[in-house]
Amino acid sequence: MSPADPTPQVVTPAVPGSFPWSVLHDRHPKLVAGVRDAHPYGPDQRRALDALVAESLTGVIARLPADAHDAARWETWGTGHYGRRWFDVPFLFAESYFYRRILDAVGYFAPGPWQGVDPYAYLKSAEARTSSPSTGSLRELLVAAVWGNRADLSFRIGQHGGPADEGSLVVDDSAALCAALEAGLGRELCLVADNAGGELLADLALVDHLLATGLSERVAVHVKPYPYFVSDALATDVAECVSVLDPATRDRLLAAAAEGRWTLRTHDFYRAPLSYHHAPEDLRAEWSAATLTVFKGDLNYRRLVGDAHWPALTPFADVVEYFPGPVAALRTLKCEVVVGLAAGTLAALDASGEEWRVTGAHGLLQTAGLDSRPGSSPAPG
Ligand SMILES: O=P(O)(O)OC[C@H]1O[C@](O)(CO)[C@@H](O)[C@@H]1O
């Protein structure tokens, strides 16, 4: 499919038994039960969490309270979705808004004792403290950053247990990426982080390597502005991960931060229920100023390519042509969306009888625009 072809259908949770349907129907209730049981929440918070689950399963999507600090933002982001069944709206909206509503239910934004208390911190800390950072060559660190993306706590709540060892890369552009990095493409690198814990430790090992070897002069790690999709990394998670690193790596990273060579950034749009085609100008300007932007994880991939039923053979470069600079995606496959496969790979995966798109057994390291600056392509929805 070229950018001129009709855009593919947006993913929704409408079909019973489909993967997105099972996330809303099975995974979200389990996730809420886990959060509720792990905290000394009072009756109001418990009631609000249970009501949210009931609403998502059998009700229609309610608006945020009018006095929520971001009510206007969500009014715009959710245009056309309020009052509809949760299963009848785009999957990306249903998931993102569900996570926003959990924060409302537990009082994350309300003045009081629970303000700013990350409801997923208990999972993240355990993960950070039991994972070990990766070591090795540039390629090994890049590949470790792919498999680090298995460390996704919302994924663990689902019925699929990701295998512990390395799986297969269904697209492996690591040779081209290493060559480009060694030629200076990572000079001003932007890494859009995904999960805290083991994944973030792998990402920090990569960042440290790039800075220590001089392949990067500066690295900006982009994190979420508030808790999102269970395990997504916040600045506090970065601080926690730095604290469990070996002393030499920790000192190098702290020195890089102190000198402004390693920075943390965030942007409100990172918690938007929209693909990156819709990113505001200031965020696009940050990506565009980077010599290379690396997107980590499954959700970032969905947002980068557009959360749509792309034919898997669609070239990655065509789909991300809109992106304002060279780009790499490092993820394990935990949803139905994938592009850029070779025909033989797709045939073998389909013949395997596995649910290869969603189990996390497979990963990819995909690149585009390493030697050119792409222009623009349309959003799929
Ligand atoms: O943490 P990651 O790699 O972005 O993965 C999150 C994935 O989990 C899911 O939310 C399902 O629980 C997927 O829809 C999503 O793509």
TrEMBL record:
Cofactor: Mn(2+)
Damage-control phosphatase ARMT1-like metal-binding domain residues: 24-344
Organism: Longispora fulva
Catalytic reaction(s) noted: beta-D-fructose 6-phosphate = dihydroxyacetone + D-glyceraldehyde 3-phosphate; beta-D-fructose 1-phosphate + H2O = D-fructose + phosphate
Superkingdom, taxonomy of origin: Bacteria
Single GO term (MF): metal ion binding
Family to which this protein belongs: Belongs to the damage-control phosphatase family. Sugar phosphate phosphatase III subfamily.
Protein name: Damage-control phosphatase ARMT1-like metal-binding domain-containing protein
Gene Ontology BP annotations: DNA damage response
Pfam families: ARMT1-like_dom
Keywords: Hydrolase, Manganese, Metal-binding
Record has Phosphoprotein as a keyword: no
InterPro entries: ARMT-1-like_metal-bd_sf, ARMT1, ARMT1-like_metal-bd
The keyword Transcription is assigned to this record: no
